[in-house]
């Protein structure tokens, strides 16, 4: 059975991704920084008849928590097939780049960028033991510099801290994919699209189930799949 670790999977898109991958037959390690919230999520899945799932406590901003999560995973599995760096925060508003609080910018980067980097660094040795390792960095259209340059969407400026953090996450995807270019790793950024979750006070225009479908598509790539790309649903989108 293939194994997947999803960070921030106790709710929202991460939870739906956990559900869909479990239904596809993956063994899902459902990451949650809060044990109780994680157990509630596991129970919800069990109520749906899904038993191929286990809780992994992991706070991506805390290196000790990540190391503990890795140690725990090593006692349960020899290899990790898929890592989904999904945990993310939107940050406080306002965050227009000329005036937003630097502390807020740092906080958003701490989760959305450094969190994904340090989680990946810790789990890379387990991923290397897979026959077809896959990493999905859950990004956003707001991380695309091309889209920011070409679209005068007044709403985008409201989320500058978040956008910068996702641009940095995309850079991480490119660097990591290059580092593993001649291996069997598939490493991509994927945006779920504007999805109704806590992150945006449920203003998104699609359900978490729909958002998760894109993540699942690129989490289940085989050896012929793309690497070093940025995807939205079926299509590649510009960095
Ligand atoms: N919703 C959208 O429209 C949209 C669009 C593009 C991209 N995304 C991305 O999709 C991903 C999932 O977001 P969502 O919309 O599903 O939001 P969400 O419902 O707020 O879920 C975010 C998840 O991340 C977890 N998390 C936050 N900080 C963490 C940390 N330090 N360590 C571990 N987990 C942490 C949260 O845990 P707690 O429950 O403990 O807070 C929660 O499980 C994020 O990366 C987001 O940027 C979302």
TrEMBL record:
- What Gene3D superfamilies does this protein's entry cite? NAD(P)-binding Rossmann-like Domain
InterPro entries noted in UniProt = CBR1-like, NAD(P)-bd_dom_sf, Sc_DH/Rdtase_CS, SDR_fam
One GO term in the molecular function aspect is: oxidoreductase activity, acting on the CH-OH group of donors, NAD or NADP as acceptor
Q: Which UniProt keywords apply?
A: NADP, Oxidoreductase
Q: Name one Pfam family in it.
A: adh_short
Q: Which family does it belong to?
A: Belongs to the short-chain dehydrogenases/reductases (SDR) family.
**How is this protein named in the record?**
SDR family oxidoreductase
């Amino acid at each position: 059975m293939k194994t997947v670790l999803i960070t921030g999977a106790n709710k929202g898109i991460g939870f739906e991704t956990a559900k869909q991958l479990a239904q596809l037959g993956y063994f899902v390690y459902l990451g949650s920084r809060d044990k109780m919230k994680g157990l509630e999520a596991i129970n919800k899945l069990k109520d749906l008849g899904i038993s191929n799932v286990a809780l992994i406590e992991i706070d991506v901003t805390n290196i000790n928590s990540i190391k503990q999560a890795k140690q725990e995973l090593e006692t349960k599995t020899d290899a990790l097939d898929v890592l989904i760096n999904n945990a993310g925060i939107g940050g406080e508003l306002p965050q227009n780049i000329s005036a937003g609080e630097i502390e807020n910018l740092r906080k958003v980067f701490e989760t959305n960028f450094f969190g994904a980097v340090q989680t990946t660094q810790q789990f890379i040795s387990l991923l290397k033991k897979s026959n077809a390792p896959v990493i999905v960095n859950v990004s956003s259209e707001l991380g695309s510099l091309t889209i920011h340059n070409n679209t005068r969407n007044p709403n985008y400026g409201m989320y500058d801290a978040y956008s910068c953090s996702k641009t940095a996450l995309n850079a991480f995807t490119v660097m990591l994919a290059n580092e593993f270019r001649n291996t069997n790793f598939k490493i991509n950024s994927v945006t779920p699209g504007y999805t109704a979750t806590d992150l945006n006070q449920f203003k998104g225009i699609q359900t978490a189930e729909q958002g998760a479908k894109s993540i699942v598509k690129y989490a289940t790539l085989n050896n012929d799949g793309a690497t070093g790309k940025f995807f939205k649903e079926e299509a590649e989108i510009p960095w």
